[in-house]
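Let's practice the habit of predicting before peeking. Look at the sequence and jot down your guess about where helices and strands might fall. Then scroll down.
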Amino acid sequence: MNSNRSKAKAVTKTVGTNKTNRASESRSERATTTVESVKRALTILDELGATTKRFGLTFSELKERTRIPNGSLHYLLRTLIDSRYVRYHQRTKLHTLGVPLMTLGGQVLRSMELREEESLRLLQNIVMDTKLGAHLAILDRDYAVYVQRVEAPGFFVAKIRPGKRQIPHITAVGKALICCFEKNRVREIMEKHAISKEDFPRAKDLDDLCEELAGVRDRKRGFAIDDQEHAENVRCVAAPIYDEKDQAIFAIGVTGNTAELSRGRAERIGEEVLKRAAEDLSRQLCSLKKFRSPIYIEQLVEAEHGSYLIDGSSA
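Done guessing? Here is the structure:
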């Protein structure tokens, strides 16, 4: 009798353990599926942000680029459209990034200690001074990513918008952003974004690029030029914006066609306009960091009230 009861308890315990294991496995599978769905949704946003097509991508183009199965892609797009992170244009059947992402772009600037209104004012002033479109960019996952853009009046409109990614070593903003990198790190980026001389005939090799980056890093020059390296008949200039550790975390630049932005004019704008704007924003970043520093706050308190011991008595 006791033997039968022991066997029954053992069976019950085994069944209970199996149920627990199955439940745990089920939760793990659901978690894995959820994480995979998030990754796929972010891949969709990345592809929409990276495309050079001005008016967006069709469902078929997204499927080809993301390699997400039809059913999953349809479900994810519907979710992104409902939440307004993706816009669907009924007439053209094209998908583009949604307005909330522009708000997130502003949050990125604020989280990196840069006043959005101040940087926008500087871009607007640059456009007024140069009659060229101006922009601000950051480095993200080895891409130069535009976070602000102000267009210039005129017929030439560069295919630049907030969220768009560019290969860094063939763009002026990209060069400005990687100007502090060691040669091996620059080589890694070039290998990651392998390009052909046939597609980008004016692109520089590693040694020439590093020589140019040294000039960008040197404050006497302090700016980079993309002389038709990324696109034919398009020239760009950009200067790095440094944080308190002397690392380039933003780049500010302008773009124009070669007719309106000659090489000589690009040099003058880099020297007289962009370097000055970059220095202003660099000072802003450093002063904000200093202002928010606990040591600085302590110094302010001491200057205002005198030095105090922990128990409140005057030192």
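How did you do? The beta strands are 86-89, 94-97, 133-140, 143-150, 165-166, 224-227, 234-242, 248-257.
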